UniProtKB/TrEMBL annotation:
This is ABC transporter ATP-binding protein. The keyword ATP-binding applies. GO terms for molecular function: ATP binding. The keyword ATP-binding applies. Residues 6-246 form the ABC transporter domain.
């Protein structure tokens, strides 16, 4: 696989006359932690969905975990890709028991359908829930959880199958300040873990870049504005072009902030 977990070249996604992605060039290496930033409707979710093998590119080449998707067995690849976001949350029945939801991810299912799991799977599911601060919610119904609790449960679920690529779509959206900071701390821990998968996190806000993240991709109207190491990408000029207004960017330690200039 030569260290590349994701490669897109000339990727287009079209729906009718609309170009959701335009000529995207992007490579993610296994030790990299990426944030994808852009305004509403920029194409971030579409980009993640292509990487997750859920949306096919209209044209261009996509390789995931070294496999060109045009020739790959998608069914074999999918368990190696962890994916959490609204697209997953919206498909979870409110009645799903949290532990079942997490453990069934080891089979690529979204909920338990009578299959039996061994003690190692149960222990791993409980350990992941505990690691994401929601261990006490294992027996609760998904529909009874708060927004922040749901997000953490779905991240725990996305890690259940020990993926090589983890894609998180707006994990901090809708969280209060404490919830956001707690999530960022956990994502920073994951980023610093050498055994963790390659990470890609989508966000609208530079304040939500977790410490330890290494790279950024800025996207506007389906086209990549800039992609590379955070220090190079996170300029006022690039962010201004991405969000369509003059932007002042500041860095304090490993945290970023931005406001209109
Ligand atoms: N089937 C479709 N036909 C036409 N346009 C579509 C279709 N699906 C999505 N779009 C458009 O593609 C664009 C990109 O959508 P996408 O969800 O990828 O953006 P996003 O950057 O994730 O946005 P947000 O930050 O608001 O979640 C949007 O303008 C959306 O309306």
């Amino acid at each position: 696989m030569d260290g590349q977990v994701l490669r897109m070249s000339g990727v287009m996604v079209r729906r009718g006359d609309a170009e959701l992605l335009r000529d995207v060039e992007w490579t993610v290496e296994e030790d990299e932690r990426w944030v994808v930033l852009g305004p509403n409707g920029a194409g971030k979710t579409t980009l993640l969905s292509v990487a997750a093998t859920q949306t096919a590119a209209t044209s261009g080449e996509v390789s995931v975990l070294g496999e060109p998707l045009a020739a790959a067995d998608i069914g074999e690849l999918r368990p190696l890709i962890g994916f959490a976001g609204a697209a997953v949350a919206n498909r979870v029945p409110d009645s799903s028991v949290v532990l079942d939801l997490v453990i069934s991810a080891s089979y690529g299912y979204l909920g338990r359908f009578g299959e039996e799991y061994g003690t190692p799977d149960l222990s791993r599911a409980r350990a992941l829930l505990t690691a994401w601060g929601v261990g006490a919610l294992a027996e609760r119904r998904f529909g009874s959880l708060s927004e922040g609790e749901r997000k953490r449960v779905l991240i725990a679920r996305s890690l259940m199958a020990d993926p090589e690529l983890l894609l998180l779509d707006e994990p901090a959206a809708g969280l209060d300040l404490g919830g956001r900071e707690d999530l960022l701390r956990r994502l920073a821990n994951l980023a610093g873990d050498i055994d963790a998968p390659a990470l890609v996190v989508v966000s609208h806000h530079v304040e939500e870049i977790p410490p330890g993240f290494t790279h950024g991709l800025l996207i506007r109207e389906g086209a990549v504005v800039a992609a590379g190491p955070l220090e190079q990408v996170m300029t006022g000029e690039n962010l201004g072009e991405t969000f369509g207004l003059p932007v002042k960017v500041e860095r304090a330690g490993e945290r970023w902030s931005a406001r209109s200039a």
